[in-house]
Amino acid sequence: MTPAEWMQIVAAIGALAAAFAAFSAARAGRAAARTAAKQLPELHHQVELNATQAKAAEDQVALTQEMLQQATAALREAARARTDERAPLVVALLETPHWPPLVEPSAEAASPARLYARDAERNTPLHFRTDGILINEGATTARVRLDEQAHFQDPAPARRERLLRPGEVARFTWTAGHTIAEWADARENPDPPNPLGACFLTITVFDNFEHGIFDHIHLAMSGRPIVAVDPSFDEVRLASHESEAAMAVTVFPTRRTYRFDGPRRDPLPWDSTYAAWWREGGATKLRRAPEPA
Predict the structure, then answer these.
(1) How do 142-146 and 125-136 pair as beta strands?
(2) Are 140 and 207 in contact (CB under 8 A)?
(3) Residues contacting 102, CB < 8 A, separation 6+
(4) C-alpha distances in angstroms, 197 versus 5, 124, 183, 274?
(5) Alpha carbon separation from 93 to 33, 132, 204, 223 (Å, rounded)
């Protein structure tokens, strides 16, 4: 045979081998496809089972977190109860504001006979004074701190701060007020509720325990002591009688903060009452009020 013929035979054998290999591969592929088709339902079932198990695990984690939160809350409540048992408990009692009020800076008693026109004279401060007592009804000594507008009546050097032992009573005086213009605005513009007809005081009570308390006693002294001489409010005067001024003191429920809870920024008890006045720019309107020609 010639070399060319041998080359043709070798090429034919190679082509036959390649065809046989392709046939074997196709046969193996069909077999694998049949096997996969048989396993597909099992794989689908396994996927569904895994999804169910994952959902159950998620639910278990959520339940565990909820139980942990409840346990933590219960522990904190128990800690607060233990703290309350040994904490001071200071109660504030106040008298009705003294009448008549005082005109500052002379501190002389105001008179209904004096008229105030709509001019610089209305910038005169008009202050009220009220007396109160603080009683420690708790189990341990309290440290009590007054705002700058108040002071204790005893001659102790720290006139705005003192210790109050269990069962002890401390007397204090609170003096606060506004200018006559501000009191008049509270009478002339009562709606929305006008904070220029009220004064505010905060008394802070705390102890020296590492896991102790801070108590805040909030007070408000309010009324409408200035009345109009004429409907235009161009002239105003002090109310003729104490009942006409309707001055009163409100003691809000004590707000307690526990040291282990960290600081809080709760709104003051009167914030919601006067929120509308602030939104409408009441203070700005008062400052920009035109003077009479």
Answers:
(1) unpaired
(2) yes
(3) 108, 109, 110, 126, 127, 128, 129, 175, 177
(4) 122, 15, 6, 11
(5) 90, 6, 15, 19
Residues 215, 256 contacting (CB under 8 angstroms):
yes
The beta strand positions in 49-197, using DSSP E, are: 90-94, 102-103, 108-109, 115-117, 125-136, 142-146, 150-152, 161-164, 169-179
Write out the two tokens for 76: 């904190």
Distance (Å, whole) CA 53 – CA 40:
20
Q: Is the pLDDT of residue 288 over 50?
A: no
Instruction: Please say whether the beta carbons of 150 and 172 come within 8 A.
Output: yes
In 10 A of CB 120, how many CB atoms? 9
DSSP summary character for residue 253:
P
3-state SS class at 12? helix
* Measured distance CA(198)–CA(182) in Å, rounded: 10
Q: What pTM does this model have?
A: 0.72
CA geometry: angle at 17 spanning 16 and 19, to 5°?
65
Contact 223, 247 (CB under 8 A): yes
What does DSSP say about strands 213-222 and 198-206: parallel, antiparallel, or unpaired? antiparallel
Cα 224 from Cα 248, distance rounded (Å):
10
The total number of residues written for the chain in this structure: 293
Are 143 and 100 within 8 A, CB to CB?
Answer: no
Query: pLDDT by residue (tens digit) across 110-128?
Result: 999 999 988 778 899 999 9
Confidence (pLDDT) at 119: 78
